[in-house]
């Protein structure tokens, strides 16, 4: 277990903390030194990770029925995490590696993620639980793009033999199929109820 933890920390540090490795290697030294970019970048990573970490628990029917107060507290934590990460993600999307194609993909993802999360919040305030649940499926599907990006990127990089084409594609592929999955999930759930 300790080896796995050290390896994960090493990968995280090389991917996000050292500017000569991973995605940061494609950024200019000026951008890497710019606090107005750095703060949103790390806010996006940290709060996006927290949203991913807690978001899946909200789908537990057992948690919702046995401890609705905890469900609500985790929900607030998720919403705040999404707001910070989503807004930060939209901002850093303007500086995305790969130019306009990547930028539009990641900015769109940020907008979609915020939209579904805010709609989920508004629906639960209106006590429309079914609509709230549907919006949360979409919200977490957008959140899960962080995982699907990391699955697709090495596959696409190996397929195309270079990073830039793969990154432009993954800017869209990391989240659109997730939302399609959410659509069919929600549709199937309505049919079965």
Walk me through what this model shows.
This protein is mostly helical and 193 residues long. It has one domain. The protein is 83% helix and 0% strand. The longest helix is centred in the middle third of the chain and has 27 residues. The radius of gyration is 18 Å and the shape is globular.
Blueprint (SSEs and pairs):
Layout: H1 2-17, H2 29-33, H3 35-55, H4 61-66, H5 68-93, H6 99-125, H7 129-143, H8 145-160, H9 163-173, H10 176-192
Keywords:
193 residues, mainly alpha, 10 helices, 83% helix, globular
Helices and strands, in N-to-C order? HHHHHHHHHH
Strand count: 0
Radius of gyration: 18 Å
Helix fraction, binned, reads over 70%
Summed up, the helix count is: 10
Estimate nothing, just give the exact number of structural domains: 1
Ends apart, CA distance between termini = 42 Å
Q: Specify the structural class.
A: mainly alpha
Uncertain ranges = 7-21
Globular, elongated, flat, extended or rod-shaped: what is the shape? globular
Q: Can you summarize the main beta sheet?
A: none
* Average pLDDT number: 89
Strand content: under 5%
